[in-house]
Amino acid sequence: MWGGFRCSRNSLLILNVFYIAVAICLIDLATHAHTSNGLLGLPIIGGIIACGVFLLIVSIGGIYATVKHHQVLLFFYMVILFVLFIIQFSIACACLAVSQTTQKQLAQQGWQSVGNATKDAVQSQFQCCGYNNLNDTGALGHPSCDDIVACGGDCTGLKENETCNCPTCSVKIQEVIGEAFQLTGGVSLFFSFTEFIGVWLTVRYRNQKDPSGGNPSAFL
């Protein structure tokens, strides 16, 4: 009995400490991406930070409930973990199933929604100019390419019959978005199964009685 009870408790504690580490990493990486990369300054970054904060709160609550062997808190912890498992598993499947067409649409919408300062930063980072066409105007327009080494000079203001060897940014942006979806989907799929393990451990732990009798109110 000691082995079963203590094993379940220690496993839950370790799992929640792992969740805390993951939550801190999510918050730190998302904040760093938001401040250092204009391309990633999208609403999804705020969503990642919110998920990290929520996971941190749930993990701390899980540790408290595990230490106290509190039946009510363990029940709510189990329910929240199961809901997170369903949501995260669905998100993982959706990310892994995103088509090339959708990635292109997201890339174009992202380019249209940002200002010239962000576009200039993207062009400098990927050594490209413009989105699909160097002569694009309006929402798909782009700032000057004077500082782009790969362009070998200014490629703006060209006429329709003139050419430039400067690559456009559409392919690079689509590659970044595609890699982000694959990485997010794979990581989410992995963590969703750890949450399912957490639900199973919580159910098992709730149904075990402390053999030491140190917490007689645990089952109240």
From TrEMBL:
Chief localization: membrane
Keyword annotations from UniProtKB, A to Z: Membrane, Transmembrane, Transmembrane helix
Record's keyword annotation contains Membrane: yes
Pfam families reported for this sequence: Tetraspanin
Subcellular location: Membrane
Source species, domain of life: Eukaryota
Lineage, uppermost ranks: Eukaryota, Metazoa, Ecdysozoa, Arthropoda, Hexapoda
Membrane topology: Multi-pass membrane protein
Name of the protein in question: Tetraspanin-31
Regions crossing the membrane: 12-32, 44-67, 74-99
